[in-house]
Amino acid sequence: MSTTQLDIRTLDKELNTMILSGQILEGFEKFYAEDCSLRENSDEPRVGKDTNREYEKAWLDSIEEFHGAELLASAVSGDVSFSEWAMDVTFKGVGRVQMAQTSVRRWKDGQVASERYYYNKG
Under DSSP, is residue 30 helix (H, G, I), strand (E, B) or coil? Predict the structure, then answer.
């Protein structure tokens, strides 16, 4: 069963809404495939839902205070969705950071098969 572009737009919007409402792990559980592959910039990809779940939990645990996030733009082309984000986060031991990030998700059968994050590591 293939997912149409309209379906992907709807699924991506729901996932982004969950992220904005703080339901990051719930969105991950609902939308990411068991064999999903996620990567930061040009780093090696992390493969598998269990591996990526632990990475997401560790990232969330590194946050001292979450000041806000904004979805600046989003688009869908075929089975790929694009989201541009601005986030304001205080990390434990690091301090407050204004983050800008773009995520590119590749969808298959209604789930995120892969996602790549582009941002300045500064």
Answer: helix
Structural domains of the chain, count: 1
Helix H or strand E segment including 74: strand 63-77
For the stretch 67-101, pLDDT in tens is 999 999 999 999 999 999 999 999 999 999 999 99
CATH code for position 91: 3.10.450.50
Contact 32, 19 (CB under 8 A): no
Strand residue runs (E) in 6-110:
32-40, 46-47, 63-77, 80-91, 95-108
pTM: 0.91
